[in-house]
Backbone:
């Protein structure tokens, strides 16, 4: 680890993130294997479509855990928009789509990320509820069960699409972001570019943790 | 059956009464449906709304045991409205015959016919008037007050729709609708058909129930025609066959009477049982009886005995004695038997008053149970309420082969003898019945030969040529074809015989040649035939094995499919399907047709050449159908009597409540402490009837082991009306106790709108119904020993016959299982 | 091969249940313990081991009672919701128009159970599979009628080419008159089991009057299912375009340099 890198996430955050990511990914892949006959081969890779079903269902349980922690952990940071800067940010699309001279500074999460979080949280819960009812349909009225399938599919549409947005922006679309979720240490330049307000806040509250330097103040989750 | 199953398609009106073919003879509905598709009408008369009723155009409810009242009303309707087929009635029935003027009808004689003495009828006043030459006097105008036609009119004048409706509980409009619809078949070109089963026979007036309908059919000209007749839907696939072969105590194979002790010689026997007539044109076919008795004796003893010796060996009943079911078990209960073979039967469930039967079995020294499975009979000693330690009866179980494990023929209700082949070998130690009998016979013969015994020749001289023989003369195995050939009959010596159809022409036969038809049988001992009505079934070919599908008649006779007795005739009495000039009453559906030189179509029955004047009912001495039937024990014309156990105090048609000639086993009869009758008893306020379901067969010995069937009908139920259920606070599906004077059983309530209480003369009378297929041996709550087979799917409940009474029909002694009294209460409620 | 149809004429059905038993026999479906429960209808409903069943129904009217017998079982829809939703291809359309089921492929997801407008498929938790009638495809291919049709004694069940059966059905319904109608050809693009109903369809227990592929199934399979790929593909394409047109959002050079400088 280079000196001067700034700590953006702690281990717990990253574990939760990757739990969610991995379970979601498995769910998407296995889900695809069941949704499209042309993807049935995914089941073959897993020892049959029936195994795939079980993998999907039990990953779902893992996903439930992850989503619960995700929501608990990020609800305050990413679940609430702070006005007016978030609105201003959104007005200029965070500078992602056209050239903006001065992008409004944002905190730990920009409104795009917040929207992503909210989508994942909302549809994640939908997926959990619909998924569980689909798994155990005989405990529920058939009229209800029948609508679980399209809802589950709708959640998939949203989450799957957002997944690629997230993937792009977390990697090549926004270089320097990935380390935040790999080891947690990011460059000051990236932080300044992406989350200038947060950087400033951390500096002001003394919570900034720089690799190779003494902690200015104790903090933690 | 006078006709056959697929002849139902030719009917214009079918009356289902005393049966439920949709459930119990499912294949019949193939043809009933065809009839309906052809525009035919279906009527169903039944105490409950059955599966058959569900398909009928017209359903009329009636209280169990009141069929004669309903049909008597129909006879009155037909006569009052002059709907008879006049020519038919005049020429083919005894309508014009004059009866002894001394005859008193029940209407004028307190409900009984003249001649009743000590519970039996002296039939002197029932006789025909004859002239000096012995010829019956007739009145072709049908106006003489003593002619049968006028007697019928007078007798049934009491059966007005109003009175009938009060007796039967059938709403008057429905009653009249049934009468009108059915009586429309009195037109010469219309065919009315009646289907019945145990719903008619299992009454104290069972035989008269059927008689009533034969009168209707004769009046409407429905006998002998396509789509007509009277059809006994048999309760088992081979009941017709077993009856043909002398299953019952009073007949030998071919419906010839069992000899009695007073008829010491064959000559006396023949003299007594051969019918005679002085009617000039009557063929009186049964004048040939000596030929059939002689041929039968030859089939039993062959050349081992002269005919006279053979006759002397035959077992003979005591004069007047009755050896029917109820009597047998009463005697058994009174310890008059030492041993008993229950062969392919389950009396512990099938016998009326099964508790008595089960007790009776315990009075035996030994019992042999021949069956596919252990059953309530074989295991009676460990059944409910039995203490095995106190039962002395030693029981032997002989497993036998099922119908698919052996070859042979069965004869269905339509008298069609069909050959069946063996599909698989018997399971385990099971053997075909004939093999068991053979082994048994050899053993018994050996013992007789060694130790002697009374009338030992009766056994030692029997022929037993039923298969290839060993050096010692015993057979290696039973060949069913050998049995079939013996039944058909053969010449026991070379013979030159006059052609029965062509006087003066002779035909030569070699010893062993099959007899071509029963007309060729001889009374001199030169022919052998095990059952004369089957003569012609096995000649050069096994006729029963034929599978030809040609139907040149176009009315479904299929003469090349198997073989039906007699002489492959498909519709018996078909001589009555043509008028006196030989023209079919119904030109669209001719059964037989005269082509100028001979009859075509079905094998003609009884007709000579057209215009010969021969009356067509040749099995009757006088050649005509009997509107008046003096042969019956309980009256020459059917009269309504109440079931012995009934809910009504009075017979609304006469002061005589029950049939006056019943044989009772309770204290009012021969008396045993177990035989209880409870009529009009407030403890047992509801009528009960027994019946079957599609899924089970008989006592269920075969079907209760078949998981797929049990799954569909898993246990004893009792069907009752919504009204009764409300009255007794019983909900659908609840457990209830059904109780009669003789026993009780647990059942599941089926509360249904298909049962309706009857309005009987202003009183609301409830009827309930129970199936009879169940028994304790396949239930879950019995004890299973280590070697006991456990069913895959258990049944609940025991036999319906725990409730049924020991009272039989005056003629047939068939128990009255279709109308008796019970109580129904919710389980746990006193 | 031509499309095949099984015709059920309820007017000819006597409720003898030969069909129910024949189905079990041919398909070797085990019996289960049942109990007498106040009706002839037993087992009480379709089950994984009961693919066809006579429904006994009493209808009380002013003129009296009616007892209806209806053979229930798979209708073999042309537009079959079960096939539409089946993830594994276990349920499929045969070339005869019937809906077959490949037992080995079934993953027990139960999606068909909810999707079927006639509520036919039954899930068995022991084998974790769904079961239903396949119209005895193996028998049909061997030129034999389905087992139930073979066993029917009254002619209530017939089997043949679709055109013939339709003609027969309409002729018979016309002959029956009254409320009689043909049921099955007017929805889900036609079923391969047709009824000749004697009463109005609404009279019969568990028989939908206007069955159709459910809106939920259509929203799911016709709209959302393709949309998921379209949306994901769109996102990928947009990201690519974004990258090549707008470029990534890179941190400013000087800051970056500074950080490194501080190392």
Residues:
């Amino acid at each position: 680890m280079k000196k001067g890198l700034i700590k953006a996430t702690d281990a717990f955050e990253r574990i939760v993130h990757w739990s969610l990511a991995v379970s979601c990914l498995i769910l998407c892949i296995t889900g695809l294997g069941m949704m499209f006959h042309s993807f049935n081969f995914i089941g073959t890779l897993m020892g049959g479509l029936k195994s795939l079903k079980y993998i999907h269902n039990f990953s779902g349980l893992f996903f439930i855990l992850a989503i619960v922690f995700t929501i608990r952990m990020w609800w305050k940071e990413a679940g609430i928009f702070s006005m007016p800067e978030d609105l201003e940010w959104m007005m200029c699309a965070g500078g992602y789509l056209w050239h903006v001279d001065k992008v409004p500074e944002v905190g730990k999460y920009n409104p795009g990320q917040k929207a992503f979080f909210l989508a994942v949280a909302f549809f994640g819960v939908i997926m959990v509820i619909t998924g569980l009812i689909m798994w155990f349909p005989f405990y529920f009225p058939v009229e209800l069960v029948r609508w679980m399938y399209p809802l589950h599919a709708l959640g998939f549409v949203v989450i799957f699409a957002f997944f690629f947005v997230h993937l792009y922006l977390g990697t090549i679309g926004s270089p320097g972001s990935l380390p935040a979720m790999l080891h947690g240490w990011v460059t000051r330049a990236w932080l300044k570019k992406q989350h200038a307000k947060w950087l400033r806040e951390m500096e002001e509250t003394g919570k900034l943790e720089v690799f190779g330097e003494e902690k200015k103040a104790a903090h933690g989750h | 059956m006078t006709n056959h199953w697929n002849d139902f398609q030719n009917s214009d009106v079918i009356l289902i009464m005393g049966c439920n073919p949709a459930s119990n003879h499912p294949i019949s509905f193939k043809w009933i449906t065809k009839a309906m598709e052809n525009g035919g009408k279906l009527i169903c008369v039944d105490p409950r709304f059955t599966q058959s009723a569900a398909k009928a155009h017209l359903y009329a409810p009636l209280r169990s045991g009141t069929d004669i009242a309903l049909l008597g009303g129909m006879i009155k309707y037909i006569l009052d409205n002059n709907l008879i087929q006049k020519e038919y009635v005049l020429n083919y029935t005894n309508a014009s015959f004059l009866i002894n003027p001394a005859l008193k009808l029940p209407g004028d004689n307190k409900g009984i016919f003249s001649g009743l003495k000590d519970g039996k009828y002296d039939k002197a006043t029932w006789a025909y008037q004859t002239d000096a030459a012995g010829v019956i006097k007739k009145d072709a105008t049908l106006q003489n007050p003593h002619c049968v036609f006028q007697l019928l009119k007078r007798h049934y004048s009491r059966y007005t729709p109003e009175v009938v409706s009060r007796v039967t509980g059938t709403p008057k409009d429905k009653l009249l609708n049934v009468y009108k619809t059915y009586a429309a078949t009195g037109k010469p070109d219309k065919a009315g058909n009646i289907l019945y089963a145990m719903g008619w026979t299992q009454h104290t007036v069972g035989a008269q129930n059927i008689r009533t309908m034969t009168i209707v059919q004769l009046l409407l000209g429905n006998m002998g025609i396509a789509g007509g007749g009277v059809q006994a839907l048999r309760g088992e696939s081979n009941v017709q066959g077993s009856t043909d072969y002398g299953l019952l105590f009073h007949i030998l194979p071919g419906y010839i009477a069992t000899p009695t002790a007073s008829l010491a010689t064959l000559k006396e026997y023949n003299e007594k049982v051969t019918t005679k007539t002085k009617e000039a044109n009557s063929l009186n076919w049964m004048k040939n009886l000596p030929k059939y008795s002689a041929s039968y004796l030859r089939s039993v003893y062959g050349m081992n005995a002269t005919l006279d010796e053979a006759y002397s060996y035959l077992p003979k009943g005591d004069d007047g004695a009755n050896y029917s079911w109820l009597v047998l078990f009463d005697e058994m209960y009174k310890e008059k038997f030492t041993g008993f073979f229950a062969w392919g039967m389950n009396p512990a469930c099938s016998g009326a008053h099964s508790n008595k039967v089960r007790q009776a079995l315990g009075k035996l020294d030994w019992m042999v149970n021949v069956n596919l499975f252990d059953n309530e009979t074989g295991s009676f000693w460990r059944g409910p309420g039995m203490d095995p330690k106190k039962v002395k009866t030693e029981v032997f179980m002989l497993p036998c082969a099922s119908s698919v494990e052996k070859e042979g023929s069965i004869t269905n209700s339509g008298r069609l003898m069909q050959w069946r082949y063996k599909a698989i070998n018997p399971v385990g130690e099971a053997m075909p019945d004939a093999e068991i009998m053979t082994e048994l016979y050899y053993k018994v013969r050996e013992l007789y030969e060694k130790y002697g015994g009374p009338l030992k020749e009766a056994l030692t001289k029997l022929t037993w040529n039923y298969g290839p023989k060993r050096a010692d003369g015993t057979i290696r195995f039973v060949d069913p074809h050998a049995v079939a050939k013996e039944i058909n009959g053969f010449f026991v010596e070379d013979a030159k015989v006059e052609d029965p159809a062509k006087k003066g022409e002779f035909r030569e036969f070699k010893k062993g040649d099959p007899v071509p038809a029963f007309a060729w049988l001889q009374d001199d001992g030169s022919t052998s035939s095990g059952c004369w009505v089957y003569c012609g079934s096995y000649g050069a070919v096994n006729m029963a094995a034929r599978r030809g599908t040609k139907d040149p008649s176009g009315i479904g006779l299929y003469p090349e499919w198997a073989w039906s007795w007699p002489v492959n005739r498909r519709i018996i009495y078909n001589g009555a399907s043509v008028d006196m000039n030989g023209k079919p009453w119904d030109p669209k559906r001719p059964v037989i047709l005269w082509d100028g030189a001979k009859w075509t179509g079905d094998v003609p029955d009884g007709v000579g050449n057209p215009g010969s004047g021969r009356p067509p009912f040749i099995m009757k001495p006088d050649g005509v159908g009997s509107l008046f039937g003096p042969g019956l024990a309980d009256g020459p014309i059917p009269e309504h009597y109440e079931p012995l156990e009934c809910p009504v105090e009075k017979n609304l048609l006469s002061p005589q409540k029950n049939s006056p000639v019943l044989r009772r086993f309770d204290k009012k009869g021969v008396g045993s402490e177990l035989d209880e009758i409870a009529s009009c008893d407030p403890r047992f306020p509801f009528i009960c009837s027994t019946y079957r379901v599609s899924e089970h067969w008989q006592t269920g010995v075969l079907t209760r082991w078949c998981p797929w069937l049990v799954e569909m009908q898993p246990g004893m139920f009792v069907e009752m009306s919504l009204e009764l259920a409300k009255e007794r606070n019983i909900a659908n599906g609840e457990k209830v106790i059904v109780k009669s004077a003789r026993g009780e059983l647990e059942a599941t309530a089926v509360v249904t709108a298909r049962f309706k209480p009857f309005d009987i003369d202003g009183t609301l009378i409830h009827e309930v119904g129970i199936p009879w297929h169940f028994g304790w041996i396949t239930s879950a709550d019995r004890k299973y020993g280590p070697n006991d087979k456990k069913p895959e799917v258990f049944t609940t409940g025991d036999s319906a016959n725990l409730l049924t009474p020991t009272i039989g029909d005056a003629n047939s002694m068939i128990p009255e299982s279709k109308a008796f009294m019970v109580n129904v209460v919710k389980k746990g409620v006193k | 091969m031509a499309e095949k149809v099984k015709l059920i004429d309820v007017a000819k059905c006597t409720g003898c249940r030969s069909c129910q038993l024949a189905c079990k026999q041919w398909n070797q479906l085990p019996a289960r313990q049942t109990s007498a429960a106040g009706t002839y209808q037993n087992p009480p409903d379709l089950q994984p081991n009961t693919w066809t069943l006579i429904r006994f129904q009493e209808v009380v009217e002013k003129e009296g009672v009616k007892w209806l017998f209806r053979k229930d079982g798979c209708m073999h829809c042309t537009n079959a919701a079960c096939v539409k939703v089946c993830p594994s291809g276990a349920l499929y359309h045969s070339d005869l128009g019937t809906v077959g089921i490949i037992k080995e492929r079934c993953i027990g997801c139960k999606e068909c159970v909810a999707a079927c407008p006639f509520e036919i498929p039954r899930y068995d938790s022991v084998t974790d599979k769904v079961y239903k009638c396949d119209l005895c495809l193996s028998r049909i291919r061997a030129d034999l009628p389905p087992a139930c049709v073979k066993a029917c004694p009254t002619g209530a069940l017939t089997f043949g080419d679709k055109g013939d059966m339709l003609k027969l059905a309409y002729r018979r319904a016309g002959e029956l008159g009254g409320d009689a109608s043909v049921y099955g050809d007017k929805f889900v693009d036609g079923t391969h089991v047709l009824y000749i109903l004697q009463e109005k369809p609404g009279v019969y227990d568990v028989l939908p009057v206007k069955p159709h592929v459910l809106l939920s199934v259509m929203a799911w399979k016709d709209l959302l299912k393709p949309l998921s790929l379209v949306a994901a593909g769109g996102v990928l394409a947009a990201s690519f375009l974004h990258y090549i047109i707008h470029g990534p959002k890179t941190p400013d050079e000087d800051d970056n340099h500074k950080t490194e400088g501080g190392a």
